[in-house]
Write a structure and sequence with these properties.
2 copies of one chain form a homodimer. Chain A has 228 residues and is of the alpha+beta class. Chain A folds into 2 domains: 118 residues, Nucleoside Triphosphate Pyrophosphohydrolase (Alpha-Beta Complex); 69 residues, Winged helix-like DNA-binding domain superfamily/Winged helix DNA-binding domain (Arc Repressor Mutant, subunit A). In chain A, 23% of the residues lie in helices and 29% in strands. Chain A has 4 helices and 10 strands. The radius of gyration of chain A is 19 Å and the shape is elongated. Chains A and B meet through strand 5 of A and strand 5 of B. Chain A binds a DNA duplex (27 and 27 nucleotides) through helix 4.
Chain lengths: 228, 228
DNA sequence: TCAATAGTGTCTGTCAGACAGTATGTG
DNA sequence: CACATACTGTCTGACAGACACTATTGA
């Protein structure tokens, strides 16, 4: 009755070069040697699921979710046959972090890099990880609508246009700068002003935007909806 | 590494007497003998998670989700110590069904009944099932906003006021009959008219409402939002 | 100077909610 | 008749999206 193994897998997402990307590791062991996969691994006997997700992420990539990041459970994948080694049930997580130092490979992985989510057709992911990534990306896109999670993708301090670039990258659309600015500033607790403006010398010219930090609000009322 | 057991637990909800209720079974075996708990049990070695949820529901209560019901994964609970028998990770599900025949007790359960969700303080649920029920109820309340799931709570054919009573029961609020009717009929594919009206002889008098069946639409654009 | 960007003002169409008014049923 | 319920009409305030306009910067 308990020859079932439980693993965690993490869809770690960030915005790089105005593109939504997820972290994949190249597998160094069987099965699927050399293929790209989500960071993850077996849950230890006395370890909570969230703790396991954070530990595996650190072990395989050197990334610590604690500083400014966000981690939440996505869903659980348990179809028989999804892992050739036997019955493996995987609890998937989604993690969001600001721009990062380059990930480090861990013991079980021979490489790690961020992949743009719209270039994943090339990656030939191991197991059912393509499906898990797709579900995770959709979760992220949906959550930007009615939560303030977008701020976990930017470093402080940030400007309203920085935040807009996050929405544009994640949703793959262009938003009206004026309407977006009004919307964010009209939501109490979304961002708090620092009193400063961006330093002189930014490329392209233009008025220097006001800088903000993350606010205390978590939910968004009213939501910022994706264009139809 | 795999002395972890995987179970499924099901929050089966229905609307009875204009009240949202969930099905609980009284445990007949240790641990927590005599306490109320969610129907559920161990996943079999070659069984998918969804299939396990349906099987356990039928075994413990005699209820088959197939006819007109809805089943979806809720989330996974895996804190160490949540089950005194050892490490047990539980994949929780939410199920919605129309009014039902009385549930039958199964082998592992000495009783089964529907509990109104606002009377669960009395029930002293086993394990962490109080938390799971709370999460499931919140999922249901949220999903009524932007999906057509409410129709899975009513028998066909049904009237717009029937559907409104579902929303009122689940959300615990009163809705404006006129605005609700306009909203539902203005959403293509939510309901399809049968051409009939409710039979003469309903209690309370009043104009006979038009009867409908479930429509093909799953999502709701725009959503029906809970009042603030 | 021109080009680019930040942010405000303003208008318009859509929609939610309040509520009046009409149609149709029971007692 | 009185009364209850179903449903339509209509108004108002909030908001999204389009877009003009001003302010501020680099080249």
């Amino acid at each position: 009755m308990d020859d079932v193994a439980v693993t965690v897998d993490v869809v770690l997402a960030t915005v790089l070069d105005d593109t939504l990307t997820v972290l994949l590791v190249q597998r160094g062991v069987e099965p699927f040697v050399g293929r790209w996969a989500l960071p993850g691994g077996f849950v230890l006997p006395d370890e909570g699921l969230d703790a396991a997700a954070m530990r595996e992420l650190t072990e395989e990539t050197g990334i610590d979710i604690e500083d400014g990041g966000h981690l939440e459970q996505l869903r659980t994948y348990g179809a028989p046959g999804r892992d050739p080694r036997g019955r493996v049930v995987s609890v998937a997580y989604v993690a969001l972090v600001p721009r990062l130092p380059a990930p480090v490979s861990g013991t079980d992985a021979s490489g790690a890099r961020f992949w743009p989510v719209d270039r994943l057709g090339r990656a030939r992911l191991a197991f059912d990880h393509a499906r898990i990534v797709a579900d995770g990306v959709e979760r992220i896109r949906a959550k930007l609508e009615y939560t303030t999670l977008a701020v976990t993708f930017v470093d402080e301090p940030f400007s309203i246009p920085d935040l807009r670039h996050v929405y544009e990258a994640v949703w793959g659309v262009m938003l009206d700068p004026g309407n977006f600015s009004r919307k964010v500033l009209g939501t109490p607790g979304f961002v708090v002003p620092t009193g400063n403006r961006a330093p002189i010398g930014a490329p392209g010219g233009g008025r220097r935007p006001v800088l903000y930090r993350r606010g205390p609000a978590a939910a968004l009322h009213p939501p910022i909806l994706r264009p139809a």
